[in-house]
Design goal:
By secondary structure, the chain is an alpha/beta fold. It is 38% helix and 15% strand. It has a single domain, classed as 3-Layer(aba) Sandwich (Rossmann fold), CATH 3.40.50. It has an eight-stranded mixed beta sheet with strand order 1-2-4-3-5-6-7-8, sandwiched between helices.
């Protein structure tokens, strides 16, 4: 029981941006990258920075047509959608952003935490780019953020698409970590630093087929997850830890929903999709499984993922809803 609880705590830290471990000196400070260094290395001409509620948000706004807002999960960046977004740009406007303090977005101050929740930040970005309504697509906790946006701002979300998103507080009793990854988890617990080996083992474990994750993606994950420690690292991440709040929000969603589920997700197993669908009790829910894919379908199988989203929007959605 004690070991399961320990792994649950470590896994929580893994599924959100790097969380400082109280009382632990950062002996790896010289291996971390500053926000300026990350922006110099990974910024590009399509990226923009907006100040929303006192927080710098790095985002991309591309294409013309009905708007799709894509929200990545924790530990990730808008690069999750690099091979998904191009599949839509000939007929949709795609907006995506780095959830602060992930990627190239800025830190989150105590004042911003008091002022905003994740859904407010997303709505503020939509105001900034002049978009009234979106289809919101999110993976992992990004799907949870989409859910809160749909519940809090129902007039702004006409379709909700969630991929491998939690509905209940996450536990690990059912997870069987291979020895190498278990050792890496224990090393992370001791040091608070995510080595390149750790990142590779993490991606291997949460992927249906590790060969689908490119060396470039692995390097990006390593770099972004060794960013210098930030205050309030999880404040703008959609979470379900407050289950009463989460259940109320899920029951409040009225936008039709599609769940796209990687069937080889070791953490949120296929039955989790049914649980989430049940909590979305006041709307129509469709579910599509990708049986050979793990926790991050848009990262692991982006073209197939995009085809499922497109089919839902263009075949299952009334014309006047787009």
């Amino acid at each position: 029981m004690k070991r399961n609880l320990l792994l649950a705590v470590v896994l929580f830290v893994l599924l959100v941006p790097s969380v400082p471990i109280p009382g632990l000196a950062d002996e790896f400070a010289d291996q971390r990258l500053t926000l300026d260094e990350l922006r110099q290395k990974y910024g590009d001409s399509d990226g923009r920075i907006a100040e929303i509620g006192g927080v710098e948000i790095y985002y991309k706004d591309q294409g013309v047509g009905p708007a799709i807002l894509m929200i990545h999960g924790s530990r990730s960046s808008l690069r999750t959608w690099d091979r998904v977004a191009p599949e839509f740009l000939d007929r949709y406007r795609v907006i995506r952003y780095d959830l602060p303090p992930n990627g190239l977005s800025g830190p989150v101050s105590d004042e911003a935490v008091a002022r905003m929740e994740p859904a407010d930040l997303a709505a503020g970005l939509l105001d900034h780019v002049g978009v009234d309504q979106v289809t919101c697509v999110g993976v992992s906790s990004g799907g949870t953020t989409c859910m809160y946006l749909a519940a809090t701002y129902p007039d702004r979300v006409n379709r909700l698409i969630m991929s491998n998103s939690p509905s209940d507080p996450v536990t690990t009793d059912h997870v069987n970590h291979p020895p190498a990854f278990k050792a890496a988890l224990e090393e992370f617990e001791e040091t608070g630093f995510e080595s390149e080996n750790f990142i590779n083992l993490f991606l291997d474990f949460y992927t249906g087929d590790p060969r689908r994750i490119s060396e470039q993606t692995r390097r990006e994950y390593y770099d972004f997850n060794r960013r210098v420690k930030e205050p309030n690292p999880i404040a703008m991440i959609g979470l379900v830890a407050d289950h009463e709040k989460a259940r109320k929000a899920m029951a409040g969603v009225r936008a039709p929903a599609l769940l796209i589920w990687g069937g080889r997700d070791a953490l949120l197993i296929p039955a989790s999709a049914g649980t989430l669908a049940g909590y979305l009790e006041n709307t129509q829910v469709s579910t599509v499984f990708m049986p050979d894919v793990g926790h991050y379908p848009p990262l692991e199988s982006p073209v197939r993922f995009a085809k499922i989203v497109a089919a839902y929007l263009e075949a299952a959605t009334p014309d006047d809803a787009l």
